[in-house]
Amino acid sequence: MQELEVDLEAFGVLFATIQSSPFTLVEIDAEQAAALAGQLGVPVRRCYIGDGALRERMEKTESSAHAIIGAKLPDRGSTMAGDFGEILTALFQAAREHPGEVLDPKKWRLKQDRTKPAPGSDVVQLILPHWPDSSDEDRVICAEVKTKSTKGNSKPVASAIEDSEKDSSRRFVKTLNWLKERALDTGLSTVSVQQLDRFIHAVDHPAARREFRAVAVISTALVEAELEGVEAPPGDERALIVISVPDLKANYESVYDAALVSADESGAVV
Known about the structure:
This protein is of the alpha/beta class. Helix content is about 45%, strand content about 15%. Helix 9 links the parallel strand 5 and strand 6.
């Protein structure tokens, strides 16, 4: 996650742990949530297009940064909400691993349609502390993320658990292979083919740990109702994490507004 240039130590402080058993509940307070746009505008934009790629597209198309970024970001609505939940989860997990390095393929950069979610498992992150040597300390984290920012019939906690079970059965392996295909085709700037192969062809390496997580990112006003009757899955199967964010819809929209203007019209990437 280094290329996002987020101070992960400081970012991790935003999340206050309310409970850790039988599932993890963390919350961001209202003041910190209101400051997310200032903190995450540029990092969120970089989740869709890096600085170098943005400059290259500006030169080749003779277009403004604003136009190129706008062609990458989702419109307001369910896809934007879902993408934000995934990015927040990815950063939350990276902050928890700090100062260890987390490798993230940035699936949001690989979308064929900006109006739809990226295919496969939501968040896949590799931890390879001794790379280029593989070791039994290697880990891969696969998180299924559901976001609920407004009232409605969706059940983010139950849905996250259910879809995380799909990850641990087949979808996670398919996602790794899809990422490898993208790495071979267009290239991935943050994860290599060899790093993906370490987990795809796991029998050729020391035993690694696979961690499955079901994550629900929920607007604070809705959390209490959504947690009613929740039964956490067995901890040895998958972790359940609930992230409470005040005024989630307003705050994630502010983050994306900041992402859209994260490079000025003169062409300087900021």
